[in-house]
Amino acid sequence: MPEWLQRDKNLQLLNTLAVPSRAEAFVSLQHPLQLPAALDYAHGEGLPVVVLGQGSNVLLAERLEALVIMQNCLGIERLKQQDDSIWLRVAAGENWHGLVNWCMRQGYYGLENLALIPGAAGAAPVQNIGAYGVELASCLEQVHCIDLHTGEPVLLAAQDCRFAYRDSIFKRSQADQLLIQSVDLKLSRLARVQVDYPALKNYLESTGVHEPGPQQVFEAVVQIRRSKLPDPAEIPNAGSFFKNPVLSAVQASKLQSRWRLLPVYPQPDGSVRIAAAWLIEQCGFKQRQAQPVQVHARHALVITNPLRRGGSEVRAYAEQIIAEVHGRFGITLEQEPRSYGWV
Ligand code: EPU
User: What are the phi and psi torsion angles at 339 (to 5°)?
Assistant: First the structure.
């Protein structure tokens, strides 16, 4: 057993919901060369491998009978540059917001709407992180992976990743099959901005900014997020706990005729996304602040775990939310964080 491999590892500080959880075995991967020995160990012990980034989008059971590999490899490399574009290779362990900040300082644009999203760069393609009108898919070119069974490198082009709203091949056919080593991004060196998202547009207008540059968009996104989303370092949470449901136009207009205030977001493909936060709020969950596990008072889509209760308790509360929303609206919410440790 390599000396850097730990047994019975406590993961409570390694997941932002702060649920108590212990892993059978654990490796903090600092260098890709550690990987073959770690995979050999897992295969020899018959342990499945769970790859963890910065633990900001996972729900962990009390015990994981697995080798947990925390992807901590670092590095940002400039691959090539043209007058208007720059290509970067970002190691999976880089902190996402740290990367966005660094890009702003370098004058590399395109990520400013994705500021302050917790987590690691390597986790970004898994759920195709998106916020304020921009998704990672808009600037991602390739994902460098390692096959967890064979140890062989696998290179996926953006179109192979099947990116969709909060979705990718890494959550579907390739779930838990690959370890993401690095992502290649194409960013702009021209100061173009994307400010169509209503909340962002309104915020900029209300602060008197009429022709925003990337730095102003970055600052606006940071301010908006801080005003409604809890900082996981202060109140344990995993961001949006549910996806916004995507309905057909017909389903959405039926719902809207009954619930006139339901926020709806028509999509370019004709489907309609509806605000899960609104559905949860209507069921009265924001008022239930005496519960050990709650929804955040300023954003009903975020489940918080202030008392650091176990994953099973968080899961039970999420199931209660799903059941009540279904009972009232006939809509089944889909959990966003990945669950580990339950059969
Ligand atoms: N709303 C409520 N009650 C609330 C909060 C929101 O009714 O407590 C309604 C409001 O009408 C609001 C609408 O829901 O206008 C949408 O809210 P918001 O703009 O905050 O966006 P969201 O759809 O709830 C999504 C992402 C967020 C991302 C924002 C901004 C998902 C699952 N979540 O939230 O992502 O920051 O858009 O683009 O798509 C995350 O993944 O952790 C995350 C925070």
Answer: -95, 140
Ligand 1 center from residue 307 Cα (angstroms) = 24
Indicate the average pLDDT of the chain: 97
Distance 128 CA to ligand 1 centre (A): 16
- Which residue of the set 240, 309, 315, 338 is catalytic? 240
Task: Return d(Cα 51, Cα 123) in angstroms, integer.
Answer: 10
323's CB contacts (< 8 A; 6+ apart) are none
Q: Which of 164, 180, 192, 191 is nearest to 90 (CA)?
A: 180
- Residue 100 CB neighbour total at 10 angstroms: 22
In sequence order, the β-bridge partners of residue 77 are 89
The model's pLDDT over 26-72, given as tens digits with 9 standing for 90+, comes to: 999 999 999 999 999 999 999 999 999 999 999 999 999 999 999 99
Rounded distance between C-alpha atoms, residue 270 and residue 78, angstroms: 38
What lies within 8 Å, CB to CB, of 168 at 6+ separation is 125, 126, 127, 128, 161, 162
d(CA 14, CA 138): 29
The residue whose CA is least distant from atom 37 of ligand 1 is: 131
Per residue in 133-172, pLDDT (tens digit) is 999 999 999 999 999 999 999 999 999 999 999 999 999 9
What percent of the chain has a predicted confidence (pLDDT) above 90? Answer: 99
CA–CA distance, 236 with 239 (Å, rounded to integer): 9
Task: Please indicate whether residue 166 is annotated as part of the active site.
Answer: yes
What are the residue ranges of helices labelled H in the chain?
35-45, 96-106, 198-206, 214-228, 249-258, 276-282, 311-329
SS3 85: strand
pLDDT of residue 223: 98
Rg for the chain, CA atoms, rounded: 20
Tokens (6 digits) for 321:
């939310």
